[in-house]
# Entry
Amino acid sequence: MIVAAALPGIPEIHAGDDLAALLVAAAGTLAAGDVLVVAHKIVSKAEGRTLALADIEPGRRAVELAAEHGKDARLVEVILAESEQIVRSRPGVLICRTRHGFVCANAGVDASNAGSAGEVVLLPSDPDASARALRRRLHALTGVAPAIVVADSFGRAWRVGQCDVAIGIAGLAALDDWRGRRDAAGRALQATIVAVADEAAAAADLTRGKDSREPAVLLRGLERHVSEGDGPGAAALVRAREDDLFL
# Structure
């Protein structure tokens, strides 16, 4: 059985806040096999990864794209700064490859739940490092090291709607490779690789609303996928460019 519970009482996060201490206060007792799924925005806010659009001076490219897409040129300037490549665009939509290798709308730059009007939240500079640091701090506070998943909502190729995925991981298997193993009928599996961390992120998102101010979820029942070491992180989930048939 897998149990997911949104953690209540987490306040608005500001730069420099001790996020781990706030999570401990909200969760109460934590166990070594637990998984904490945290919305990337509270991680980004704690790390100071926010910008006020009033402070942004858009360049010529940003102004041109803004006119084409009906967006605020200052927002487009931030998106360009966070992008390695614009891989697809159409009026109103910019699909970007971030410096992390993620392919997502607007390079993950988002104004929703930003905390202040005219402010945008960026992705963490290194979400895997953020997850590892949060896990270390939780261990220092509690003596146990639950796995950490930093999650964000991404659109999906071939599918309508958004789904939370893991963009940072510490202590949880990113993938469970079933290739070479057999299914219930005894047939050898040739292509099945379960995206464990993405499925954990999606399951956690089902327990909270987008307007609930519950940015962290405690998952129990995934102990078999939790490791003592931090592991390779969400970098293991990024498909190599040479294997991507659609970009």
Remarks:
- The mean pLDDT is 93.
- The chain is about 25% helix and 25% strand.
- Residues 1-48+125-238 form a domain with the 60s Ribosomal Protein L30; Chain: A; fold (CATH 3.30.1330.100).
- The first helix runs from residue 19 to 27.
